Structure formats: C-alpha cells, structure tokens
User: What shape does this take?
Amino acid sequence: MSAAMHLLLAEADLASQLALLAAWGALWYVIIDLLATRAFRPFLLSRAWLAQWKDLTRNFFETSLQVEFASDELFFDYACQFSAITCQHGVGGLLCVPAMCGFSGPVACALVRHGALCEAGWEFQDILQRAWQVKFGGEEGKAKNQSSLLAAVALHHALGLCMVIPMNLAYGGHPCYHEIVFLLQGAAFFALLMQNYSFTLDVRTSTGLRRMRLSTGSVFVVLCWSRLYRFWVIGYRMMCTFYADGNTAIFSMASPGLVLMGIFNAVIVGHAFRKCLKFMLMRLPLQDMKPIHVATNAECARKRCGAPTMEETAQ
Assistant: This one.
C-alpha cells in the first residue's frame, strides 16, 4: 500500500498518525484564520443584531470562561475565531456519521480516525499558537491567553492530545470509540451553533422567547445526554476494555484525560442549565391594553333596535 493510501485510511501506524496530526493542525491553522477574517467577521458586521450578539457573547466569555478583554477589538477578534472553531467541531462530527449509521468497513473506521485527528490536530496547533503568543507576543499575547482561559483550554485539550493517537493505533475500530468521538464533536458543534443562534433572538417578543426556550432546552438535553450520561457510560466501558486487555499504558493515560474532560463537561452543562432555567422562568412584560367593554343586556337590545349604544353615544 502506498504512503498516500496509508494517510487517506489513517492507518494504525505511528508515522501515519503523527503526519496526519501535523497535517490537520496546519490545515486548521489556516482555515480558522480565513473563516474568522474573511467569512464570520464581514457577516457579523452586516447583521442588525450585531450589538446584542456581541454583548451576549462577551457575557458568555466572562461568566463561563472568566475571560475579560482589554478592548472591544480584541474581544471581537476572539469571538470571530471562536465562531470559526465551531466549524472544526462540525467537520469532526460529520466524519463520524457513517460509522454511527452502522457502517463498519475500513472507510467508515478511517473517517472516524480522521474525525478524532481533526480535533487533536486543531488542539495541537492551538497549544503551539498560545505558547508562542505567551512567549513572544508581548502584552497583547498575554492578554489573549489569560490564566482562566488557559485552564479551560487545558481541561478541554487534555483528552484529545493524550488519547487520540493511542486510541487510533489500538482501538480505531471499536464502536465505543466511534461513538465517543462523534458525541464530543457533534454535541459541541450543535451547542455552539444553537448558542450563536440564541444570541440573535429578541426575547422581548413572544416568538423570540419561544425560540430561545426551544434553543436553550435542546442544548441542555443534548449536552446532558452526550456530555454526562453517554460520556461516562462509554468511558467506563472503554476503561473496562483497557483493563481486560491488560493495556495498562492506555488505561493510565485515559484516566486523567477522562477526569479532566469530565470536569469541563460539568462546567458547560451547568452553564447550559442556568441559561435554560433563566428563559424557562422568564415572562414577557404585560402589554398596554385598552379595557374590554362588556355590553349589558340593555345595550344589546338598543343595538338590535338600531339605537346607539352608551359607548357610541359617548364617542
């Protein structure tokens, strides 16, 4: 088999996996910047709801990630980058769809391995980029990488960077591995997509509030299923598999990764719950309404006879 086919099928050899990790990282380094600057930035600037979207997105970063921005431009650049990262999760989840639909051939398994490397490659280049910014980016680089954000990044990236290549090498065809890659990628894409959509809604209207409740409720349900219930069920099954196989190396690496990702999952599910509860309890302000006039029996009789009613006489 040629080297190109080894890469296309994400074969279970270390050289191919490392090459693909670097390739996916380089690809996302370029694509995320292009999406942020050439697609999301001009699109957002053209929207009427931009001011609201920016306020709610900034509030999300400050409350969930504990990140504060020195300037509006710095915040907007980061928000556009964050929107572009959503696309990466979408691609990774999409690559797992054939395996989740029941296909079990070499192509379906290869796509899952690529989906996992898609995530790990982005995480790898993100770590390198942030390290460069902190080391050589001066005050601006440090402002982009506050300690609270780096802590969230460490929690999120730990599982992928520690486990993707070992899992692709040893368990790339395992159904549980396919599902956990799909859930982590697909659920993240869905949650981020719906969150951005919800930031454009006007909850002062009945339609906007109804759509907000549907959006936040669906995100909470999906995250509870994927990031709490199924994450730990599949994680437990995989750990039992490692133990039964006597694979102590992967068992030792997976343990801290699962715990750190579990903490990250609990944080984002908690945020989703608070947001869902907020809008489920929200009520629209009472609109100014004219009092409804209830006609008396006498007025009804006068109207049947063609005589003006008291209300018409007053007018």
The chain has 13 helices and no strands. Residues 288-296, 307-315 have pLDDT under 50 and may be disordered. The radius of gyration is 26 Å.
